[in-house]
């Protein structure tokens, strides 16, 4: 077993436990989130989005995660340090589920890896999505917890990998 595999076995379960604590704090549940409208079609998701917060944790800086929703229900992006690619399913009444994500295996500084693990963990748990009047995309992963909040991204940096098919990371 190489060092990266060992670190992954140690690091990601710890982050999962810690991220569970972040989403259940009483101060987190008291913040008001605009309800938005239900996502009616994949076309509403299509394009690039910049993650601005993951639950109560604000995201900023050069390692801000970016997510691109492509045609044929493909999703991919940059989680902070690593790229990911997978599928999603959109159901009636705003149900949104992500399939298994393939992720590259780069190692970055601890704060970036923590943020990345938190995002990927929360994406696995997403159950619904909504669009706000301000054009934000909200992905809900747990009842009573603040959503993953995203805004449209005008760059074309990640969309090509989603459109091009199989992942080669």
Pattern of helices and strands: HHEHEEEEEEEHEEEH
Globally, the shape reads globular
Tally of distinct domains: 1
Biggest beta sheet summary:
11 strands, antiparallel
| Unreliable residue stretches | 1-33, 164-169
CATH architecture: Beta Barrel
Radius of gyration: 15 Å
> According to CATH, what is the topology?
Lipocalin
Number of helices: 5
- Give the oligomer, counting copies of the same chain as homo and different chains as hetero: single chain
N-C termini distance: 20 Å
Q: What can you tell me about this protein's structure?
A:
By secondary structure, the protein is an alpha+beta fold. It has a single domain (3-163), classed as Lipocalin (Beta Barrel). Helices cover 30% and strands 28% of the residues. The protein has 5 helices and 11 strands. Strands 1, 2, 3, 4, 5, 6, 7, 8, 9, 10 and 11 form an 11-stranded antiparallel β-sheet that branches. Strand 6 (83-90) and strand 7 form a beta hairpin. Helix 1 (3-23) packs across helix 4. The longest helix has 21 residues, at 3-23. The protein is globular, with a radius of gyration of 15 Å. Residues 1-33 and 164-169 have low confidence and may be disordered. It comes from Marinobacterium zhoushanense. This is DUF306 domain-containing protein. Residues 43-144 form the DUF306 domain. InterPro entries: DUF306_Meta_HslJ, HslJ-like_sf, Hsp_HslJ-like. It holds the Pfam family META.
């Amino acid at each position: 077993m190489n060092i990266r595999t060992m670190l992954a076995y140690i690091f990601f379960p710890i982050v999962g436990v810690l991220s569970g604590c972040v989403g259940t704090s009483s101060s987190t549940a008291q913040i008001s989130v605009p309800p938005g409208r239900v996502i009616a079609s994949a076309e509403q998701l299509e394009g690039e989005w910049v993650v601005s917060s993951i639950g109560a944790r604000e995201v900023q800086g050069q390692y801000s995660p970016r997510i691109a929703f492509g045609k044929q229900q493909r999703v991919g992006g940059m989680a902070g340090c690593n790229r990911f690619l997978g599928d999603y399913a959109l159901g009636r009444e705003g149900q949104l589920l992500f399939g298994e994500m393939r992720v590259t295996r780069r190692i970055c500084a601890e704060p970036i890896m923590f943020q990345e693990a938190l995002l990927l963990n929360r994406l696995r748990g997403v159950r619904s999505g909504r669009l706000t009047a301000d054009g934000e995309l909200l992905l809900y992963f747990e009842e009573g917890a603040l959503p993953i909040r995203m805004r449209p991204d005008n760059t074309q940096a990640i969309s090509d990998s989603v459109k091009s098919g199989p992942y080669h990371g």
